[in-house]
Give the backbone structure.
Amino acid sequence: MARKAKETVKMNLFSFLDILSGVIGVFTLIIVGMTVISLETTEQILKMQVGAEMLKRPSYIECQESGLILQPEGFKIPGNNIASSTPLKHRLDFLEDHVDDQYLVFLIRPNGGENFERARAMATARDLVIGYEPIYDVGPVKFKTVDGVLIEPTGQPVEYLRTDIELEDEDAETSGRTAST
């Protein structure tokens, strides 16, 4: 007596594979499109956030191959002067005095690793809260306020010790003298 062959259920997966390959193709096009758009953008904009949602305010230092740039004022420090830079020391002193409400963020260009290491060593020696953000090597970094107003770089360092000068001027005025005499 011959055995009866079992009937097997054959499933056709061609329609499933067609749908799956279509979805993968669409996702591939989306990824390629987003990459092309992001590579064409030549400026990087950081929004300066302050307010109740931010517990600490960031202070930015951009690390490039040629040196550092104190941001958003745009003051440049050559790579060979990092350790002796007075504006950088003033910035770090200010952050050390305001560690409860300020922190340091390094914006690192692909070729700025060596200068980042020098600046980070100075910051960690002062026990500062630091963070870092890798950025593209194209175009300048622009800063906007919360209101969307573009901050124009002055190229001059912010004088963090200015409050001491103002106190001396106030003392001179209260004693009957002017600050110019």
